[in-house]
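Quick review question:
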Protein backbone atom coordinates (compact mmCIF):
# COMPACT_ATOMS: atom_id res chain seq x y z
CA UNK A 1 0.00 0.00 0.00
CA UNK A 2 2.85 2.38 0.83
CA UNK A 3 4.49 1.73 -2.53
CA UNK A 4 1.14 2.24 -4.30
CA UNK A 5 0.60 5.56 -2.51
CA UNK A 6 4.10 6.76 -3.38
CA UNK A 7 3.65 5.88 -7.04
CA UNK A 8 0.16 7.43 -7.07
CA UNK A 9 1.51 10.66 -5.56
CA UNK A 10 4.39 10.81 -8.06
CA UNK A 11 2.07 10.18 -11.01
CA UNK A 12 -0.31 12.89 -9.76
CA UNK A 13 2.61 15.33 -9.47
CA UNK A 14 3.45 14.79 -13.15
CA UNK A 15 -0.21 15.09 -14.21
CA UNK A 16 -0.79 18.33 -12.26
CA UNK A 17 1.07 20.69 -14.66
CA UNK A 18 -0.99 19.26 -17.52
CA UNK A 19 -4.18 20.03 -15.59
CA UNK A 20 -3.13 23.67 -15.17
CA UNK A 21 -1.91 24.15 -18.75
CA UNK A 22 -5.05 22.55 -20.21
CA UNK A 23 -7.33 24.65 -18.04
CA UNK A 24 -5.35 27.79 -18.81
CA UNK A 25 -6.23 27.07 -22.45
CA UNK A 26 -9.84 26.47 -21.54
CA UNK A 27 -9.64 22.73 -22.25
CA UNK A 28 -11.36 20.25 -19.96
CA UNK A 29 -11.22 16.51 -20.12
CA UNK A 30 -8.71 13.78 -19.44
CA UNK A 31 -7.37 13.76 -23.01
CA UNK A 32 -6.27 17.41 -22.87
CA UNK A 33 -4.83 16.98 -19.38
CA UNK A 34 -2.75 13.93 -20.24
CA UNK A 35 -1.63 15.45 -23.54
CA UNK A 36 -0.29 18.58 -21.88
CA UNK A 37 1.25 16.64 -19.00
CA UNK A 38 3.32 14.61 -21.45
CA UNK A 39 4.09 17.70 -23.55
CA UNK A 40 5.40 19.56 -20.49
CA UNK A 41 7.73 16.64 -19.72
CA UNK A 42 8.84 16.62 -23.37
CA UNK A 43 9.77 20.30 -23.27
CA UNK A 44 11.57 20.01 -19.95
CA UNK A 45 13.46 16.92 -21.08
CA UNK A 46 14.51 18.59 -24.34
CA UNK A 47 15.97 21.55 -22.45
CA UNK A 48 17.73 19.16 -20.05
CA UNK A 49 19.38 17.37 -22.97
CA UNK A 50 20.33 20.68 -24.58
CA UNK A 51 22.28 21.86 -21.51
CA UNK A 52 23.39 18.36 -20.41
CA UNK A 53 21.60 18.70 -17.11
CA UNK A 54 20.31 16.04 -14.74
CA UNK A 55 16.81 14.75 -14.12
CA UNK A 56 16.47 17.18 -11.21
CA UNK A 57 16.55 20.00 -13.76
CA UNK A 58 13.78 18.28 -15.70
CA UNK A 59 11.66 17.94 -12.57
CA UNK A 60 12.24 21.58 -11.64
CA UNK A 61 11.18 22.72 -15.10
CA UNK A 62 8.04 20.54 -15.01
CA UNK A 63 6.99 21.93 -11.63
CA UNK A 64 7.90 25.46 -12.70
CA UNK A 65 5.71 25.28 -15.79
CA UNK A 66 2.84 24.00 -13.66
CA UNK A 67 3.31 26.85 -11.18
CA UNK A 68 3.27 29.44 -13.98
CA UNK A 69 0.14 27.97 -15.55
CA UNK A 70 -1.81 27.61 -12.27
CA UNK A 71 -2.87 31.29 -11.90
CA UNK A 72 -4.03 31.38 -15.52
CA UNK A 73 -5.96 28.15 -15.04
CA UNK A 74 -8.08 29.55 -12.24
CA UNK A 75 -8.96 32.66 -14.25
CA UNK A 76 -10.60 30.67 -17.03
CA UNK A 77 -14.33 29.96 -17.19
CA UNK A 78 -14.62 26.23 -17.70
CA UNK A 79 -17.34 24.09 -19.18
CA UNK A 80 -18.71 21.06 -17.38
CA UNK A 81 -16.33 18.15 -16.90
CA UNK A 82 -16.64 14.64 -18.23
CA UNK A 83 -20.00 13.14 -17.10
CA UNK A 84 -19.60 9.82 -15.36
CA UNK A 85 -15.85 10.25 -14.91
CA UNK A 86 -16.07 9.32 -11.23
CA UNK A 87 -17.65 5.93 -11.88
CA UNK A 88 -15.16 5.18 -14.65
CA UNK A 89 -12.28 6.17 -12.36
CA UNK A 90 -13.49 3.79 -9.66
CA UNK A 91 -13.70 0.98 -12.21
CA UNK A 92 -10.17 1.86 -13.33
CA UNK A 93 -8.87 1.78 -9.77
CA UNK A 94 -10.42 -1.65 -9.29
CA UNK A 95 -8.84 -2.87 -12.53
CA UNK A 96 -5.50 -1.38 -11.51
CA UNK A 97 -5.68 -3.16 -8.17
CA UNK A 98 -6.36 -6.44 -9.94
CA UNK A 99 -3.38 -5.81 -12.25
CA UNK A 100 -1.04 -5.11 -9.31
CA UNK A 101 -1.15 -8.71 -8.15
CA UNK A 102 -0.41 -10.37 -11.50
CA UNK A 103 2.49 -8.24 -12.70
CA UNK A 104 5.07 -10.92 -11.89
CA UNK A 105 8.67 -10.07 -12.79
CA UNK A 106 10.14 -7.82 -15.44
CA UNK A 107 10.92 -9.60 -18.70
CA UNK A 108 11.13 -9.09 -22.45
CA UNK A 109 10.99 -5.50 -23.68
CA UNK A 110 10.44 -4.22 -20.13
CA UNK A 111 14.13 -4.84 -19.39
CA UNK A 112 15.11 -2.75 -22.43
CA UNK A 113 12.95 0.13 -21.22
CA UNK A 114 14.13 -0.24 -17.61
CA UNK A 115 17.72 0.22 -18.75
CA UNK A 116 16.88 3.58 -20.31
CA UNK A 117 14.82 4.70 -17.34
CA UNK A 118 17.66 3.78 -14.97
CA UNK A 119 20.26 5.76 -16.91
CA UNK A 120 18.01 8.84 -16.91
CA UNK A 121 17.49 8.43 -13.17
CA UNK A 122 21.13 7.76 -12.24
CA UNK A 123 23.23 9.73 -14.74
CA UNK A 124 24.06 13.41 -14.67
CA UNK A 125 25.02 15.36 -17.79
CA UNK A 126 22.18 13.77 -19.77
CA UNK A 127 22.06 13.61 -23.55
CA UNK A 128 20.15 11.60 -26.14
CA UNK A 129 23.07 9.19 -26.44
CA UNK A 130 23.45 8.75 -22.67
CA UNK A 131 20.51 6.32 -22.40
CA UNK A 132 21.71 3.87 -25.07
CA UNK A 133 22.60 0.33 -24.01
CA UNK A 134 25.93 0.52 -25.91
CA UNK A 135 28.51 3.22 -25.34
CA UNK A 136 29.66 2.84 -28.96
CA UNK A 137 26.21 2.29 -30.46
CA UNK A 138 23.62 4.55 -32.04
CA UNK A 139 20.18 5.96 -31.30
CA UNK A 140 17.16 3.69 -31.48
CA UNK A 141 14.88 5.09 -34.24
CA UNK A 142 11.75 4.29 -32.21
CA UNK A 143 13.00 5.84 -28.97
CA UNK A 144 15.57 8.41 -30.11
CA UNK A 145 13.90 10.95 -27.85
CA UNK A 146 13.18 8.98 -24.63
CA UNK A 147 10.03 10.84 -23.67
CA UNK A 148 8.14 8.07 -21.92
CA UNK A 149 11.33 6.78 -20.32
CA UNK A 150 11.77 10.29 -18.94
CA UNK A 151 8.23 10.20 -17.52
CA UNK A 152 8.93 6.92 -15.70
CA UNK A 153 12.29 8.19 -14.43
CA UNK A 154 10.55 11.27 -13.01
CA UNK A 155 8.00 9.05 -11.27
CA UNK A 156 10.88 7.11 -9.70
CA UNK A 157 12.58 10.35 -8.65
CA UNK A 158 9.48 11.88 -7.06
CA UNK A 159 8.37 8.61 -5.42
CA UNK A 160 11.87 7.87 -4.14
CA UNK A 161 11.79 4.27 -5.36
CA UNK A 162 13.97 2.15 -7.63
CA UNK A 163 13.05 2.44 -11.34
CA UNK A 164 12.35 -1.30 -11.44
CA UNK A 165 9.38 -0.76 -9.08
CA UNK A 166 8.04 1.95 -11.37
CA UNK A 167 8.37 -0.13 -14.53
CA UNK A 168 6.74 -3.11 -12.83
CA UNK A 169 3.83 -1.34 -11.09
CA UNK A 170 3.10 1.88 -13.00
CA UNK A 171 0.57 0.00 -15.23
CA UNK A 172 -1.66 -0.33 -12.17
CA UNK A 173 -1.61 3.44 -11.70
CA UNK A 174 -2.28 4.13 -15.38
CA UNK A 175 -5.22 1.72 -15.72
CA UNK A 176 -7.79 4.33 -14.57
CA UNK A 177 -6.35 6.76 -17.10
CA UNK A 178 -6.71 4.15 -19.86
CA UNK A 179 -10.39 3.64 -19.04
CA UNK A 180 -11.09 7.37 -18.83
CA UNK A 181 -9.43 8.06 -22.19
CA UNK A 182 -11.30 5.20 -23.90
CA UNK A 183 -14.56 6.51 -22.42
CA UNK A 184 -13.85 10.10 -23.46
CA UNK A 185 -12.95 9.06 -27.00
CA UNK A 186 -16.21 7.10 -27.31
CA UNK A 187 -18.27 9.91 -25.85
CA UNK A 188 -16.82 12.54 -28.20
CA UNK A 189 -17.06 10.37 -31.32
CA UNK A 190 -20.65 9.23 -30.66
CA UNK A 191 -21.81 12.37 -28.86
CA UNK A 192 -23.39 10.09 -26.26
CA UNK A 193 -22.51 9.25 -22.67
CA UNK A 194 -24.00 5.76 -22.80
CA UNK A 195 -22.32 4.86 -26.08
CA UNK A 196 -19.07 6.34 -24.78
CA UNK A 197 -19.32 3.93 -21.87
CA UNK A 198 -20.05 1.08 -24.31
CA UNK A 199 -16.98 1.98 -26.37
CA UNK A 200 -14.87 1.85 -23.21
CA UNK A 201 -16.23 -1.59 -22.31
CA UNK A 202 -15.51 -2.86 -25.84
CA UNK A 203 -11.98 -1.45 -25.80
CA UNK A 204 -11.11 -2.86 -22.37
CA UNK A 205 -12.61 -6.25 -23.21
CA UNK A 206 -10.62 -6.36 -26.45
CA UNK A 207 -7.28 -5.32 -24.96
CA UNK A 208 -7.25 -6.44 -21.32
CA UNK A 209 -9.65 -9.38 -21.04
CA UNK A 210 -9.69 -11.22 -24.38
CA UNK A 211 -5.98 -12.20 -24.12
CA UNK A 212 -6.29 -13.19 -20.46
CA UNK A 213 -3.71 -12.33 -17.76
CA UNK A 214 -4.42 -8.62 -18.07
CA UNK A 215 -3.53 -8.40 -21.76
CA UNK A 216 -1.67 -5.30 -22.88
CA UNK A 217 -2.70 -3.43 -19.72
CA UNK A 218 0.09 -5.19 -17.83
CA UNK A 219 2.61 -3.47 -20.11
CA UNK A 220 1.36 0.11 -19.75
CA UNK A 221 4.88 0.92 -18.56
CA UNK A 222 6.16 0.50 -22.14
CA UNK A 223 6.05 3.24 -24.77
CA UNK A 224 4.21 1.01 -27.26
CA UNK A 225 1.32 0.22 -24.91
CA UNK A 226 1.18 3.79 -23.61
CA UNK A 227 0.99 5.11 -27.15
CA UNK A 228 -1.68 2.61 -28.19
CA UNK A 229 -3.84 2.57 -25.04
CA UNK A 230 -3.45 6.16 -23.80
CA UNK A 231 -2.24 8.56 -26.48
CA UNK A 232 -4.22 7.10 -29.40
CA UNK A 233 -7.61 7.32 -27.61
CA UNK A 234 -6.62 10.81 -26.45
CA UNK A 235 -5.83 11.73 -30.05
CA UNK A 236 -9.20 10.47 -31.28
CA UNK A 237 -11.00 12.43 -28.56
CA UNK A 238 -9.09 15.65 -29.32
CA UNK A 239 -9.47 15.29 -33.10
CA UNK A 240 -13.25 14.88 -32.93
CA UNK A 241 -13.56 17.59 -30.28
CA UNK A 242 -11.88 19.97 -32.71
CA UNK A 243 -14.09 18.76 -35.58
CA UNK A 244 -17.20 19.54 -33.50
CA UNK A 245 -15.99 22.90 -32.16
CA UNK A 246 -12.88 24.28 -33.92
CA UNK A 247 -10.70 26.76 -32.02
CA UNK A 248 -7.05 27.66 -31.85
CA UNK A 249 -6.84 26.27 -28.32
CA UNK A 250 -8.25 22.92 -29.44
CA UNK A 251 -5.88 22.93 -32.42
CA UNK A 252 -2.87 23.66 -30.22
CA UNK A 253 -3.80 20.81 -27.89
CA UNK A 254 -4.22 18.46 -30.85
CA UNK A 255 -0.79 19.50 -32.15
CA UNK A 256 0.72 18.77 -28.73
CA UNK A 257 -0.85 15.32 -28.88
CA UNK A 258 0.70 14.70 -32.29
CA UNK A 259 4.11 15.65 -30.91
CA UNK A 260 3.69 13.43 -27.85
CA UNK A 261 2.70 10.41 -29.90
CA UNK A 262 5.47 10.91 -32.45
CA UNK A 263 8.11 11.04 -29.72
CA UNK A 264 6.72 8.15 -27.66
CA UNK A 265 6.17 5.78 -30.61
CA UNK A 266 6.73 7.36 -34.06
CA UNK A 267 5.05 4.74 -36.25
CA UNK A 268 1.86 4.84 -34.17
CA UNK A 269 1.55 8.55 -34.92
CA UNK A 270 1.50 7.60 -38.60
CA UNK A 271 -0.88 4.68 -38.05
CA UNK A 272 -3.41 6.87 -36.21
CA UNK A 273 -3.36 9.29 -39.13
CA UNK A 274 -4.58 6.53 -41.48
CA UNK A 275 -8.13 6.15 -40.07
CA UNK A 276 -8.31 9.90 -39.47
CA UNK A 277 -7.55 10.52 -43.16
CA UNK A 278 -10.22 7.98 -44.05
CA UNK A 279 -12.72 9.89 -41.91
CA UNK A 280 -11.81 13.24 -43.51
CA UNK A 281 -12.24 11.79 -47.01
CA UNK A 282 -15.68 10.36 -46.22
CA UNK A 283 -16.79 13.68 -44.66
CA UNK A 284 -15.39 15.69 -47.57
CA UNK A 285 -18.79 17.15 -48.55
CA UNK A 286 -19.82 18.24 -45.07
CA UNK A 287 -17.34 19.84 -42.66
CA UNK A 288 -14.25 19.54 -44.85
CA UNK A 289 -12.53 22.72 -43.70
CA UNK A 290 -12.62 21.93 -39.98
CA UNK A 291 -11.55 18.34 -40.59
CA UNK A 292 -8.62 19.31 -42.81
CA UNK A 293 -7.45 21.89 -40.29
CA UNK A 294 -7.66 19.25 -37.55
CA UNK A 295 -5.67 16.84 -39.68
CA UNK A 296 -3.01 19.47 -40.33
CA UNK A 297 -2.84 20.43 -36.65
CA UNK A 298 -2.34 16.81 -35.72
CA UNK A 299 -0.02 15.92 -38.60
CA UNK A 300 2.54 18.74 -38.70
CA UNK A 301 4.38 17.92 -35.42
CA UNK A 302 4.80 14.21 -36.31
CA UNK A 303 6.04 15.23 -39.75
CA UNK A 304 8.72 17.41 -38.16
CA UNK A 305 9.67 14.55 -35.83
CA UNK A 306 9.91 12.17 -38.81
CA UNK A 307 12.23 14.60 -40.60
CA UNK A 308 14.44 14.71 -37.51
CA UNK A 309 14.42 10.90 -37.30
CA UNK A 310 15.10 10.31 -41.00
CA UNK A 311 18.93 10.07 -40.75
CA UNK A 312 18.55 7.56 -37.91
CA UNK A 313 15.91 5.53 -39.75
CA UNK A 314 18.08 5.43 -42.87
CA UNK A 315 20.73 3.62 -40.80
CA UNK A 316 18.39 0.72 -39.96
CA UNK A 317 18.55 -2.43 -42.08
CA UNK A 318 14.76 -2.96 -41.97
CA UNK A 319 14.12 0.37 -43.74
CA UNK A 320 14.25 -0.13 -47.53
CA UNK A 321 15.84 -3.57 -46.97
CA UNK A 322 18.15 -5.35 -49.39
CA UNK A 323 16.74 -8.44 -51.19
CA UNK A 324 18.52 -10.72 -48.72
CA UNK A 325 17.19 -8.81 -45.72
CA UNK A 326 13.67 -8.75 -47.17
CA UNK A 327 13.77 -12.51 -47.79
CA UNK A 328 14.81 -13.00 -44.17
CA UNK A 329 11.95 -10.81 -42.95
CA UNK A 330 9.40 -12.63 -45.10
CA UNK A 331 10.55 -15.95 -43.66
CA UNK A 332 10.40 -14.60 -40.12
CA UNK A 333 6.82 -13.31 -40.48
CA UNK A 334 5.63 -16.03 -42.85
CA UNK A 335 2.70 -17.07 -40.63
CA UNK A 336 1.30 -13.51 -40.73
CA UNK A 337 1.61 -12.96 -44.46
CA UNK A 338 0.35 -14.12 -47.85
CA UNK A 339 3.47 -14.02 -50.03
CA UNK A 340 3.42 -14.18 -53.81
CA UNK A 341 6.93 -12.83 -54.35
CA UNK A 342 9.36 -10.42 -52.69
CA UNK A 343 7.52 -7.53 -54.30
CA UNK A 344 3.97 -8.87 -53.91
CA UNK A 345 2.68 -9.84 -50.48
CA UNK A 346 0.12 -8.67 -47.95
CA UNK A 347 -1.02 -9.29 -44.42
CA UNK A 348 -3.09 -12.45 -43.96
CA UNK A 349 -6.76 -11.50 -43.54
CA UNK A 350 -7.08 -13.75 -40.50
CA UNK A 351 -4.67 -11.51 -38.57
CA UNK A 352 -7.40 -8.86 -38.41
CA UNK A 353 -9.61 -11.09 -36.28
CA UNK A 354 -6.95 -12.79 -34.16
CA UNK A 355 -7.94 -10.67 -31.14
CA UNK A 356 -11.02 -12.80 -30.68
CA UNK A 357 -14.78 -12.31 -30.45
CA UNK A 358 -14.78 -8.50 -30.17
CA UNK A 359 -12.65 -8.11 -33.30
CA UNK A 360 -14.66 -10.66 -35.30
CA UNK A 361 -17.98 -9.01 -34.45
CA UNK A 362 -16.65 -5.51 -35.06
CA UNK A 363 -15.41 -6.40 -38.54
CA UNK A 364 -18.67 -8.09 -39.49
CA UNK A 365 -20.68 -5.08 -38.27
CA UNK A 366 -18.66 -2.48 -40.20
CA UNK A 367 -21.08 -2.41 -43.20
CA UNK A 368 -23.96 -1.45 -40.87
CA UNK A 369 -22.29 1.92 -40.35
CA UNK A 370 -23.50 2.84 -43.84
CA UNK A 371 -27.09 2.62 -42.58
CA UNK A 372 -26.55 5.10 -39.74
CA UNK A 373 -26.89 8.17 -41.89
CA UNK A 374 -24.23 10.82 -42.22
CA UNK A 375 -22.91 10.59 -38.70
CA UNK A 376 -19.35 11.31 -37.65
CA UNK A 377 -18.90 7.91 -36.06
CA UNK A 378 -20.09 6.09 -39.17
CA UNK A 379 -17.68 8.08 -41.35
CA UNK A 380 -14.86 7.19 -38.96
CA UNK A 381 -15.76 3.50 -38.94
CA UNK A 382 -16.23 3.24 -42.71
CA UNK A 383 -13.37 5.46 -43.84
CA UNK A 384 -10.93 4.27 -41.20
CA UNK A 385 -11.64 0.57 -41.69
CA UNK A 386 -11.58 0.63 -45.48
CA UNK A 387 -8.33 2.61 -45.62
CA UNK A 388 -6.51 0.50 -43.03
CA UNK A 389 -7.67 -2.80 -44.52
CA UNK A 390 -6.96 -1.65 -48.06
CA UNK A 391 -3.42 -0.77 -47.05
CA UNK A 392 -2.86 -4.04 -45.20
CA UNK A 393 -4.59 -6.46 -47.60
CA UNK A 394 -3.57 -5.05 -50.99
CA UNK A 395 -0.37 -6.67 -52.21
CA UNK A 396 0.45 -3.60 -54.31
CA UNK A 397 0.51 -1.09 -51.43
CA UNK A 398 1.56 -3.25 -48.49
CA UNK A 399 5.16 -3.97 -49.70
CA UNK A 400 5.87 -0.25 -50.17
CA UNK A 401 4.31 0.53 -46.80
CA UNK A 402 6.47 -2.16 -45.18
CA UNK A 403 9.63 -0.86 -46.82
CA UNK A 404 8.92 2.60 -45.40
CA UNK A 405 8.10 1.64 -41.79
CA UNK A 406 9.58 -1.92 -41.64
CA UNK A 407 7.64 -5.15 -41.91
CA UNK A 408 7.70 -5.54 -38.15
CA UNK A 409 5.78 -2.27 -37.76
CA UNK A 410 3.53 -2.42 -40.83
CA UNK A 411 1.81 -5.52 -39.45
CA UNK A 412 0.81 -3.55 -36.36
CA UNK A 413 -1.19 -1.03 -38.37
CA UNK A 414 -3.95 -3.66 -38.49
CA UNK A 415 -4.65 -2.84 -34.85
CA UNK A 416 -5.74 0.67 -35.84
CA UNK A 417 -9.00 -0.54 -37.36
CA UNK A 418 -11.59 1.23 -35.13
CA UNK A 419 -12.86 -2.03 -33.64
CA UNK A 420 -14.60 -0.62 -30.56
CA UNK A 421 -16.39 2.07 -32.56
CA UNK A 422 -17.51 -0.43 -35.20
CA UNK A 423 -18.95 -2.73 -32.54
CA UNK A 424 -20.81 0.03 -30.70
CA UNK A 425 -22.02 1.63 -33.92
CA UNK A 426 -23.22 -1.69 -35.26
CA UNK A 427 -25.14 -2.28 -32.04
CA UNK A 428 -26.75 1.16 -32.39
CA UNK A 429 -27.92 0.39 -35.93
CA UNK A 430 -29.15 -3.06 -34.92
CA UNK A 431 -31.07 -1.56 -31.99
CA UNK A 432 -32.84 0.77 -34.40
CA UNK A 433 -34.07 -2.07 -36.61
CA UNK A 434 -34.87 -4.84 -34.13
CA UNK A 435 -35.37 -2.98 -30.85
CA UNK A 436 -35.04 -4.95 -27.58
CA UNK A 437 -34.48 -8.17 -29.52
CA UNK A 438 -30.89 -6.97 -29.93
CA UNK A 439 -30.19 -7.82 -26.27
CA UNK A 440 -30.60 -11.64 -26.31
CA UNK A 441 -29.05 -11.74 -29.79
CA UNK A 442 -26.00 -9.85 -28.52
CA UNK A 443 -25.55 -12.16 -25.53
CA UNK A 444 -25.94 -15.30 -27.64
CA UNK A 445 -23.53 -13.98 -30.27
CA UNK A 446 -20.98 -13.12 -27.59
CA UNK A 447 -21.12 -16.62 -26.13
CA UNK A 448 -20.85 -18.35 -29.50
CA UNK A 449 -18.03 -16.18 -30.82
CA UNK A 450 -16.06 -16.44 -27.58
CA UNK A 451 -16.30 -20.23 -27.73
CA UNK A 452 -15.50 -20.46 -31.43
CA UNK A 453 -12.93 -17.66 -31.80
CA UNK A 454 -11.28 -16.90 -28.44
CA UNK A 455 -8.35 -15.32 -30.23
CA UNK A 456 -4.71 -16.14 -30.92
CA UNK A 457 -2.44 -14.44 -28.40
CA UNK A 458 0.72 -16.44 -28.88
CA UNK A 459 0.24 -19.16 -26.24
CA UNK A 460 -2.45 -21.46 -27.63
CA UNK A 461 -3.13 -21.13 -31.34
CA UNK A 462 -6.74 -20.75 -32.43
CA UNK A 463 -7.55 -20.44 -36.11
CA UNK A 464 -8.61 -16.86 -36.87
CA UNK A 465 -11.24 -16.53 -39.61
CA UNK A 466 -10.32 -14.54 -42.70
CA UNK A 467 -13.91 -13.83 -43.79
CA UNK A 468 -14.61 -10.98 -41.30
CA UNK A 469 -11.77 -8.85 -42.72
CA UNK A 470 -13.05 -9.25 -46.28
CA UNK A 471 -16.62 -8.53 -45.13
CA UNK A 472 -15.39 -5.37 -43.46
CA UNK A 473 -13.41 -4.25 -46.53
CA UNK A 474 -15.94 -4.88 -49.28
CA UNK A 475 -18.96 -4.35 -47.04
CA UNK A 476 -17.37 -1.11 -45.92
CA UNK A 477 -17.03 0.00 -49.55
CA UNK A 478 -20.72 -0.71 -50.05
CA UNK A 479 -21.46 1.10 -46.81
CA UNK A 480 -19.72 4.19 -48.17
CA UNK A 481 -22.26 4.29 -50.99
CA UNK A 482 -25.11 3.96 -48.50
CA UNK A 483 -23.53 6.69 -46.37
CA UNK A 484 -23.55 9.04 -49.36
CA UNK A 485 -27.23 8.60 -50.17
CA UNK A 486 -28.86 7.80 -46.81
CA UNK A 487 -29.98 10.51 -44.38
CA UNK A 488 -31.45 8.45 -41.55
CA UNK A 489 -29.87 8.08 -38.12
CA UNK A 490 -29.17 5.20 -35.78
CA UNK A 491 -30.80 4.93 -32.39
CA UNK A 492 -28.11 5.84 -29.90
CA UNK A 493 -28.81 5.20 -26.26
CA UNK A 494 -28.94 2.77 -23.36
CA UNK A 495 -30.35 -0.09 -25.45
CA UNK A 496 -27.34 -0.23 -27.77
CA UNK A 497 -24.91 0.26 -24.88
CA UNK A 498 -26.52 -2.57 -22.91
CA UNK A 499 -26.28 -4.80 -25.98
CA UNK A 500 -22.53 -4.15 -26.19
CA UNK A 501 -22.10 -4.96 -22.50
CA UNK A 502 -24.01 -8.22 -22.93
CA UNK A 503 -21.93 -9.14 -25.98
CA UNK A 504 -18.70 -8.40 -24.10
CA UNK A 505 -19.79 -10.27 -20.97
CA UNK A 506 -18.40 -13.68 -22.09
CA UNK A 507 -15.09 -12.03 -22.93
CA UNK A 508 -14.98 -10.40 -19.50
CA UNK A 509 -15.78 -13.73 -17.83
CA UNK A 510 -13.00 -15.37 -19.82
CA UNK A 511 -10.56 -12.64 -18.78
CA UNK A 512 -11.37 -12.91 -15.09
CA UNK A 513 -11.12 -16.70 -15.21
CA UNK A 514 -7.63 -16.40 -16.73
CA UNK A 515 -6.30 -13.69 -14.38
CA UNK A 516 -2.86 -15.02 -13.59
CA UNK A 517 0.75 -13.96 -13.56
CA UNK A 518 1.96 -14.80 -17.04
CA UNK A 519 5.68 -14.48 -16.20
CA UNK A 520 6.43 -15.24 -12.57
CA UNK A 521 10.12 -16.22 -12.74
CA UNK A 522 13.14 -15.11 -14.73
CA UNK A 523 15.45 -18.09 -15.37
CA UNK A 524 18.28 -15.74 -16.38
CA UNK A 525 17.89 -13.38 -13.41
CA UNK A 526 20.89 -11.72 -11.81
CA UNK A 527 21.61 -12.48 -8.17
CA UNK A 528 20.98 -9.70 -5.60
CA UNK A 529 24.66 -9.78 -4.68
CA UNK A 530 25.75 -9.17 -8.25
CA UNK A 531 23.27 -6.32 -8.67
CA UNK A 532 24.52 -4.70 -5.46
CA UNK A 533 28.15 -5.05 -6.55
CA UNK A 534 27.47 -3.53 -9.97
CA UNK A 535 25.68 -0.57 -8.41
CA UNK A 536 28.01 -0.01 -5.45
CA UNK A 537 31.49 -0.93 -6.75
CA UNK A 538 31.35 -0.48 -10.53
CA UNK A 539 31.46 3.21 -11.51
CA UNK A 540 28.53 4.61 -13.46
CA UNK A 541 28.93 4.58 -17.26
CA UNK A 542 31.47 1.74 -17.09
CA UNK A 543 31.49 -0.79 -19.93
CA UNK A 544 30.68 -4.38 -18.93
CA UNK A 545 31.09 -7.49 -21.09
CA UNK A 546 28.93 -10.59 -20.50
CA UNK A 547 26.83 -13.07 -22.45
CA UNK A 548 23.68 -11.88 -24.23
CA UNK A 549 21.05 -12.54 -21.55
CA UNK A 550 23.29 -11.44 -18.70
CA UNK A 551 24.21 -8.23 -20.52
CA UNK A 552 20.55 -7.49 -21.18
CA UNK A 553 19.78 -7.65 -17.46
CA UNK A 554 22.92 -5.82 -16.39
CA UNK A 555 21.90 -2.90 -18.59
CA UNK A 556 18.47 -2.91 -16.92
CA UNK A 557 19.56 -3.17 -13.28
CA UNK A 558 22.83 -1.21 -13.16
CA UNK A 559 23.75 2.25 -14.54
CA UNK A 560 26.41 0.91 -16.90
CA UNK A 561 26.87 0.22 -20.59
CA UNK A 562 27.12 -3.28 -22.04
CA UNK A 563 28.73 -4.64 -25.18
CA UNK A 564 25.89 -6.78 -26.53
CA UNK A 565 22.27 -7.82 -26.02
CA UNK A 566 19.82 -10.26 -27.66
CA UNK A 567 19.38 -9.04 -31.27
CA UNK A 568 15.59 -9.06 -30.88
CA UNK A 569 15.94 -6.26 -28.31
CA UNK A 570 18.47 -4.12 -30.19
CA UNK A 571 17.83 -1.64 -32.99
CA UNK A 572 19.30 -3.18 -36.14
CA UNK A 573 21.42 -0.20 -37.14
CA UNK A 574 24.90 0.00 -38.62
CA UNK A 575 26.27 1.43 -35.36
CA UNK A 576 24.66 -1.20 -33.15
CA UNK A 577 25.59 -4.24 -35.30
CA UNK A 578 23.53 -6.70 -33.17
CA UNK A 579 24.45 -9.74 -35.27
CA UNK A 580 28.18 -8.95 -35.15
CA UNK A 581 28.03 -8.40 -31.39
CA UNK A 582 26.29 -11.73 -30.94
CA UNK A 583 28.97 -13.44 -33.04
CA UNK A 584 31.68 -11.89 -30.84
CA UNK A 585 29.99 -13.24 -27.71
CA UNK A 586 29.88 -16.73 -29.22
CA UNK A 587 33.58 -16.49 -30.12
CA UNK A 588 34.44 -15.35 -26.60
CA UNK A 589 32.47 -18.18 -24.97
CA UNK A 590 34.31 -20.65 -27.24
CA UNK A 591 37.82 -19.23 -26.76
CA UNK A 592 37.78 -17.17 -23.57
CA UNK A 593 40.04 -14.64 -25.32
CA UNK A 594 40.14 -11.33 -23.43
CA UNK A 595 41.03 -9.58 -26.67
CA UNK A 596 37.31 -9.66 -27.58
CA UNK A 597 35.93 -7.67 -24.58
CA UNK A 598 38.97 -5.35 -24.75
CA UNK A 599 38.05 -4.58 -28.35
CA UNK A 600 34.87 -3.02 -26.94
CA UNK A 601 36.87 -1.10 -24.28
CA UNK A 602 35.19 -3.21 -21.60
CA UNK A 603 36.53 -2.55 -18.11
CA UNK A 604 34.55 -5.32 -16.41
CA UNK A 605 33.76 -8.92 -17.31
CA UNK A 606 30.83 -10.86 -15.82
CA UNK A 607 30.73 -14.63 -16.30
CA UNK A 608 28.22 -17.24 -15.24
CA UNK A 609 29.42 -20.49 -13.72
CA UNK A 610 30.15 -22.86 -16.61
CA UNK A 611 31.46 -20.12 -18.92
CA UNK A 612 35.22 -19.95 -19.67
CA UNK A 613 36.30 -18.85 -16.17
CA UNK A 614 39.51 -20.92 -16.08
CA UNK A 615 40.71 -19.66 -19.46
CA UNK A 616 40.10 -16.06 -18.38
CA UNK A 617 42.05 -16.61 -15.15
CA UNK A 618 44.85 -18.24 -17.14
CA UNK A 619 45.31 -14.92 -18.98
CA UNK A 620 46.00 -13.13 -15.70
CA UNK A 621 42.56 -11.73 -14.91
CA UNK A 622 41.69 -11.78 -11.21
CA UNK A 623 38.13 -12.11 -9.91
CA UNK A 624 36.82 -9.27 -7.73
CA UNK A 625 33.40 -10.75 -6.93
CA UNK A 626 32.02 -14.28 -6.68
CA UNK A 627 28.70 -15.81 -5.76
CA UNK A 628 26.93 -19.08 -6.48
CA UNK A 629 26.12 -18.08 -10.08
CA UNK A 630 28.43 -15.26 -11.20
CA UNK A 631 32.06 -14.19 -11.22
CA UNK A 632 33.18 -10.60 -11.94
CA UNK A 633 36.62 -9.71 -13.32
CA UNK A 634 38.08 -6.22 -13.53
CA UNK A 635 40.01 -5.90 -16.80
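Suggested answer, residue by residue:
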Amino acid sequence: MILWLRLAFATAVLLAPGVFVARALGRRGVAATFTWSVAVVAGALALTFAVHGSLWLTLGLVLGIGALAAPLAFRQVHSDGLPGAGAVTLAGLALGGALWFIEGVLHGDALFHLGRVRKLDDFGSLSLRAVDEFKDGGLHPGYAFPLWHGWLALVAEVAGVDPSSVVLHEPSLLAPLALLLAYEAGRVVFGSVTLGFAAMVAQVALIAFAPGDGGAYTTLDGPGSVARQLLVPAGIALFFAFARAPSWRAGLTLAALGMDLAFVHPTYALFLAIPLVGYVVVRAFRDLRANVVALVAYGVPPLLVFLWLKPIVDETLSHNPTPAEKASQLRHYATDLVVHSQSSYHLAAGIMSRSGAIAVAALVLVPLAGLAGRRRWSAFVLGGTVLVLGLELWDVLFPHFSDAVSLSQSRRAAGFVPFAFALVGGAAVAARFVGPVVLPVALAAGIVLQLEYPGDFGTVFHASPAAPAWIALFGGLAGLLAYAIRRGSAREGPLAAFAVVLFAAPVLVHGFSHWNTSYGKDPSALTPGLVHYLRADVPKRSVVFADLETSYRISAYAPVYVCNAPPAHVADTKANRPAARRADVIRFLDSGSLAIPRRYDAQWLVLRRGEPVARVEAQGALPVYRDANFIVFKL
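Why it works: Residues 528-634 form one domain. The chain has a mean pLDDT of 92.
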